Automatic annotation (TrEMBL):
The lineage of its organism: Eukaryota, Viridiplantae, Streptophyta, Embryophyta, Tracheophyta. It comes from the Eukaryota. This is Single-stranded DNA binding protein Ssb-like OB fold domain-containing protein. CDD domains: SoSSB_OBF (cd04491). Signal peptide: none annotated. It comes from Sesamum radiatum. Residues 22-113 form the Single-stranded DNA binding protein Ssb-like OB fold domain. InterPro entries: NA-bd_OB-fold, OB_Ssb-like.
């Protein structure tokens, strides 16, 4: 009988991970990050395709004391992730964009703005600057 984690014990405490441990193709991460900067990359008012209408996308450099990574913020996430903000990313995942990692939170995760972190972001270890060869590795 498969137990999908609802064993009546309440929610498991999430294990917080450090940015430097993020790997391509992984998800379900919970981490505390500080936003270094944010650049709007897409601001669609009246887009050709209706589902893109009013879509805002920003690339935010976020990180902790181990590393930094670009976070793809969408719509209301853009308003939460202002430079200088500290946030808890729950159930975040790694997307690949042109061979490099981007952190994202989809509808299954959430972003919670929290009290300012005491750490300084390690900007000189930017995981989004690492290019990955797209090789299919079966890791069983």
């Amino acid at each position: 009988m498969a137990d999908n984690g609802g064993g009546g014990r309440g929610l498991r405490k999430p294990v917080f991970v450090k940015v430097e441990s993020l790997k391509p193709g992984t998800n379900g991460h919970t981490l505390v990050v500080k936003v270094v900067n944010s650049n709007t990359v897409l601001q669609k008012g009246a887009a050709a395709s209706p589902h893109l209408r009013n879509t805002r996308i920003a690339e935010c450099l976020v990180g902790d004391d181990t590393a930094s990574i670009l976070f793809t913020a969408r719509n209301e996430q853009v308003d939460l992730l202002k430079p200088g903000t500290t946030a808890v990313l729950r159930n975040a995942k790694i997307d690949m964009f042109k061979g490099s990692m981007r952190l994202a939170v989809d509808k299954w995760g959430r972003i919670e703005v929290t009290e300012p972190a005491t750490f300084e972001v390690k900007e000189d270890n930017n995981l989004s600057l690492v290019e990955y060869e797209l090789v299919n590795v079966v890791d069983e």
